[in-house]
Amino acid sequence: MKKRFWVISILLLFAVTLAGCATTGDLEKVQAQEKQTSVKAEQALQAAQDAKAAAAAAKTDTAAQLEKANAAAMKAADAAARAENALKMADERAKLAEERAKVAEEKAMVAEENAKKTDAIFQKSMKK
Amino acid sequence: MCRIIDVSILSAGLRLIVLFIFILSLLLSLLLSLPGCAVSKNVLVMPLPAPSPPVEKIERPEIPVVLEEKIESNEFSVAKEADVIGRLAFIMLEKGDTLPDIARHFSLGFNEISAANPGVDVWVPEAERRIILPLSFILPDAIRKGIVINLAALRLFHFKEDSKSPAVSTYPVGIGTEERPSPMGQMYVERKMVRPTWHVPASISEDHRKKGDPLPAKVLPGPLNPLGEYALYLSKSGYLIHGTNKPTSIGLRATNGCIRLYPEDIKKLYENVPIKTPVSIVNQPYLIGQRDGVVYMEVHAPLENLDTDELDKIYAKLKNIEKKSTRKLDWKKVETALAEARGIPVPIFEIRQGNIKGDEKITEVKRPNKFYGKPEIPEQKTEAWYVLAADLRDEIEAKRIAAIINHQGPQIPARVVSESDRYRVIAGPFNNIREAKDAAKRLKIDLEIEGILIEPVRKR
What we know:
The complex is a heterodimer of chains A (about 130) and B (about 450). Chain A has about 130 residues and is an all-alpha fold. Chain A is about 95% helix and about 0% strand. Chain A has one helix at about 1-125. The termini of chain A are far apart. Chain B folds into four domains: about 1-45; about 65-280, L,D-transpeptidase catalytic domain-like; about 290-360, no CATH class; about 385-455, Alpha-Beta Plaits, CATH 3.30.70. The longest helix of chain B has about 30 residues, at about 1-35. Chain B contains ten helices and 26 strands. Chain B has helices at about 1-35, 35-45, 100-105, 110-115, 200-210, 265-270, 310-325, 330-340, 395-405, 435-445, and strands at about 65-70, 75, 85, 90, 130-135, 135-140, 145-150, 155-160, 165-170, 175, 185-195, 200, 220, 230-235, 240, 255, 260, 280, 285-290, 295-300, 345-350, 360-365, 385-390, 415-420, 420-430, 450-455. In chain B, helix 3 (about 100-105) packs across helix 4. Chain B has about 450 residues and is an alpha+beta fold. In chain B, the strands form seven sheets. Chain B has a nine-stranded mixed beta sheet with strand order 2-9-8-7-18-11-14-15-17, covered by helices on one side. The interface of A and B includes residues 122 and 128 of A.
């Protein structure tokens, strides 16, 4: 019985000892993990801060860009309006020029006809 | 089964081979096409053509312009076997010049100067413009004896028999209208008359009566006589070669069948033509002639009563010339000359190569201080009568009308007076109301102008 008791005790001790050794390793492991996590957390925080800063900066940039874009859009709209206006004016000018050319052509035709008529009358006047 | 597999393998192999060959041929053709498409064509498709000789850049020297005081207009010697006389020249215009004034000064007709200078306003040409003086002529295809008149060219040629070397005098003429054309054929000078009386033919008398301008049975010598100062009566009854009181009509179809000359030209002809001189009247709008181994062609606008065979005859003549020569005729030049009908001899063919030397020089005739026969406009007088002939907005048209009135025969002086934006054509001055009324009547009958009499400014 005693013997059995001693064997069980030794086995238990051995088991406890063994169990104790595993816990220390684990602890070290956990500690290392914790350290790593901490570093990572630090890094993440830093990254987050950086991201925040970047986001803030980006926000500022976006605002500026938006402002710029707005200004550009306004300019573009203005330019488009002016271009349209210019086109309209050019169109009107072209129409006017066309009308003038037509009038000039008609005048030239009338002048030519007059000249022909005058010439015919002159030739007739040269008869006896 | 096995056979089928074998065949498919074989066909796949064949396809690969074909593909390989195709790729190879593509690569080859790509390599060959690199130097240029033309080369590849030549190499692969056709033999290389003989290389064309390098085009020699002909540097034409600037043609020198020779300024001359005078140029011969009427008297020419005829070189042996030559049909072309005279030479072309040009004159620079000044403000106020008209083509009829230049024409008369150089003994050219209205038709000749206007045909030689197409697009130029006859009455109001631009100043500082070159005007061609077409003083080169191809002699008509007729016996060179006595007088030959080419109706199509509106020109008379007088061949002199007594001179040692053959010579010809030439003058522009006015001829009959379409309704009353000049006769054609052989005739001779029957008699001559200085200061002839015009016995008005019944048909003309009737025409004038209808126009409201009745004529007397005969018109005595003087400014109103249309025969002018000299007349050659032809054997063909009723037809004359005479002067005119309307010099601007020379070069126009304006007579009742007679032949009119400038007053200064009829004087010369009258003095040089004896009675019995043969007169040949022809109608040759297409003329071909030679001078110094070069064939020239002169084309005039044909009259409406022209025989249609005339053009065929000319083509046959040209083909014959080409046949006799080893060289090809430039038919494009012929077509151009026919289309333009400028009345100027155009070189179309060199019988032997190198005869066309080009225009070695261009003659510019110095503009005279005064053109012979140019109508003069007397100074304005406040105490004179005038006729308002036109009131226009167009300055050119006003100038044209004034010029035409000035060139009537006898002259009616006229000028353009500008008033703000209006241009008034004023005829005058006239010494009295009768003269002014006569002028107004002539403006109405001859030019369809309703003139308004302008009274003199009365002195208070």
